[in-house]
Amino acid sequence: MKLPMAHPEGYAGPAAAVTELSLAQVGLSQEVELVRIDLPAEEIEPLLERGVLPGCRLCPVRFSPSGDPIVMVDGVLLALRKETAGCLCVRRPDSEEAA
Amino acid sequence: MPLVALVGPPNAGKSTLFNRLTGLRQKVANYPGVTVEKVVGRFTAPGQGEVEIVDLPGVNGFSARTLDEQVTRDVLEGRAEGLRAPDALILIVDSTRLEPQLMLVEPVLEIGVPTLLVLNMADELAAREGEVDDDALAEQLGVEVVRANARAGDGVDRIRTFLTHVAERGPLPPRPCPVISNVTRDQKGLSLPVIDAFAARRRHIREVGRKSEYRPPQPSKLTQRLDRVFLHRFWGPAVFLAVVVLVFQAIFTWATPFMDGVEWLVASSGEWVAAQLPEGWFRSLVVDGVWMGVGSVLVFLPQILILFLFLGILEDSGYMARAAVIADRSMYRVGLQGRAFLPLLSAYACAVPAILAARTVEDERDRMATIFVAPFMTCSARLPVYALLIAAFIPDTPILGPFMGARAATLLGLYLLGALAAVATAFLLKRTLLRGSPSTFLMELPPYRVPSPRSLALRLLDRSKIFLKRVGKIILAVAVALWLLAQFPGGPMDPPAIEDSALGRVGKVMEPVIEPLGFDWRVGIGLVSSLAAREVIVGTLGTIYGIEEADEGSIELQAVLQQHLDLGAAVGLLIFFVFALQCMSTIAVMRRETAGWKWPILQFSYMLSLAYLGAFVANWLI
Ligand SMILES: Nc1nc2c(ncn2[C@@H]2O[C@H](COP(=O)(O)OP(=O)(O)OP(=O)(O)O)[C@@H](O)[C@H]2O)c(=O)[nH]1
Ligand SMILES: [Mg+2]
Q: Model-level pTM?
């Protein structure tokens, strides 16, 4: 079952949708803001517990030899699979003003 | 006696603090998920009172998705067997990642017992220029706050003061067991308000952080530099390989002088004892039975210590978590996830803690697959068997110049064979009995830390004690039993030729079964006695040859083996030991962790069949 996350206040709307991308598409050292997690319920929870919540800042700092991203969240290095990263919907923080 | 529980996220330093407070030596290592079972110790307050302290598995939340998290939750809710509900709590967090870690504060405070918040790793916070105002934080959260460096002992005095107060106050009166609010699990799965609850908690913590002037530390420079190499597309795997080769080469080259030393000690002390004792059955028991049996295993202590030295460095430095990340893709193809790699790596020491460590694997089928294949990983009890046979049958020729010799290469090959069997078996299991897709992989990478020589030395000391205890108990007992069996019929005054003794006959009964593998009855006895523990076969062969060749004085086990086994049989025996599950402790812990006999029996028969088949093929080919 997929449960899309609600857009936190103020982020919804067509303007935001245009600039949304998945974390897997974000290059190294580019800080982005999490908008939504498109994962089944039981897979969201571990992310939430580690502070990966809508509105938090994520920054890929490195790729593992197999190309999976290692992201910095709240000063913690978190290794994910690219499949998981592909389900994290993010936006660039600078688009905030544009929206 | 009041009970104080140590709670906190994984890798925050709970066990380090526990060891400091209780004087015990629980395993500490620099990766999340080290402690998987509750451990109780005792703290004696300077006055007179005492408190019990329980070290718990680390948790990020209280929804108990894994078995180790369930342990923590049970203890906190007072439902753990044999433990009262805690009368006070120490919540210990890593101050370099303060904000995400404080997500635990709210549910922990809801338990409603006196709580001390320990901001651990204060040394790293200061070194990386992070700041926080402890008093403001205490005021914001409404708990007592102590800053500490559990590793060096700074700030621990204030924690002792807290415990002393708890001791003086005594146990809390009986009360209804707390139930930790569990925002994340309702019947319908995860609902939107739950995410909101987490988000609200996070917002609150951010606000607390702001008001207590929390400034997050700079990223660790050392970690950035090392990760650039260790997680590099090319250098990462290359360094991994180089380290592995170094370990195996070291096991053979570095250990040699020490082994010669131990061997000399055993031999000369044996001769000395023989000279002191009058000729007779007692001398035969002590010298031919016990000394040969125990001594032939004792020699391998240096090699085992070298293995543990390397494992210790890998675990304490923080490299293990990286290894899990590098391995995750391959594990994923097999059907497991990178997290299962950590228990499997620790199985290189021993399968028993590895099977327990698999509790951190989230999916039950993944956990089963992990513990099923863990005994294929080469545990340190196999090392004496491998080392003995390799030294006896493989010439010491260099392959990669000074970097790797034929012996190290053979040893590496045996380790690889075991790992391959584990991978193939997991692959099979995940497609048959334990079908299911691998769960997601999520892993915090701790900063690299320089392993402290003291903690490494203590690890080796503890390991030596465990090894000596095993030798002193199991191997000694087996040696005495074998010697006794070798005296009948006829009795110790007039012992029969060993082949006609009770021992010899037992071996002869087995011979038809193991003959296709090229083994004789002596090896057969060794295979049976090694069911207790693998290295027992070395002691057994030592005892048998010791009795058999008692006239020759002190014998060299390697030399006798060369006379009795051909190369095919030796390789067959090595392969048998790669596959077979000869370990009572593993079977016992399997039964406990799977709550039944089904899995251990299946595992034992499967591994035995593989072992027989493998040895047969090897003996037939060579
Ligand atoms: N620099 C520094 N390192 C510390 C400190 N306390 C603990 N460590 C290190 O942190 C790592 C984790 O320590 P553990 O005590 O195993 O952590 P734990 O909370 O028991 O972890 P789990 O059992 O996995 O939940 C080890 O490498 C310790 O040496 C500290 O105050 N300062
Ligand atoms: Mg621990």
A: 0.88
User: Ligand 1 within 6 A of B147 CB?
Assistant: no
ipTM of the complex: 0.82
Contacts B216 to A, Cβ<8 Å? 74-75
pLDDT of B309: 92
pLDDT 10s digits, B255-280: 888 888 988 888 888 888 888 888 77
DSSP string for residues in B159-210: HHHHHHHHHHH-SPPP-PPP----TT-BTTB--HHHHHHHHHHHHHHHHHHH
In A, which residues are within 8 Å of B440 by CB distance? 39, 43, 46, 81, 83-84
> B132 CB under 6 A from ligand 1?
no
How does pLDDT run across B18-49, given as a tens digit for each residue? 999 999 999 999 999 999 999 999 999 887 78
Strand order in the sheet with B3-7: B39-44, B50-55, B3-7, B88-94, B115-120, B144-147
Q: Is the CB of B120 under 6 A from ligand 1?
A: yes
List of chain A residues whose C-beta atoms are within 8 Å of the C-beta of residue B11: none
> What CA–CA distances, in Å, run from B210 to B99, B106, B125, B213, B214?
10, 17, 17, 5, 6
- pLDDT above 80 (res B157): yes
**Inter-chain touch A47–B96, beta carbons under 8 Å:** no
Q: How confident is the model at residue B193 (pLDDT cuts 50, 70, 90)?
A: low
Q: Does A59 touch chain B (CB under 8 A)?
A: no
The answer on pLDDT for A72 being more than 60 is yes
B340 backbone dihedrals φ, ψ, rounded to 5°? -65, -15
Question: What residues does each domain of chain B span?
Answer: 3-211, 469-621
What are the pLDDT digits (tens) for B451-470?
999 989 999 999 899 889 88
Ligand index nearest the alpha carbon of residue B357: 1
CB of B8 closer than 8 Å to CB of B103:
no
Instruction: Verify whether ligand 1 is closer than 6 Å to residue B342 (CB atom).
Output: no
Nearest-angstrom CA–CA distance, B31 and B52: 26
- Which fold does the domain B3-211 belong to in CATH? Rossmann fold (3.40.50)
Give the pLDDT confidence of B322-364 residue by residue, as tens digits.
988 988 888 888 888 788 888 998 898 889 989 999 998 888 8
d(CA B614, CA B569): 11
B217 lines ligand 1 (CB under 6 A): no
| Backbone phi and psi for residue B105, each to the nearest 5 degrees, phi listed first | -55, -50
Does domain A15-98 fall under CATH 3.30.460.40? My reply is no
Q: Which residues of B touch A79 (CB under 8 A)?
A: 321, 325, 328, 338, 441-445
Instruction: Give distance in angstroms: CA of B6 to centre of ligand 1.
Output: 13
Q: Which of A53, A71, A83 to mutate to test the interface with B (most CBs of B within 10 A)?
A: A53
Query: What integer is the mean pLDDT of A7-15?
Result: 46
Query: Where are the domains positioned within chain A?
Result: 15-98
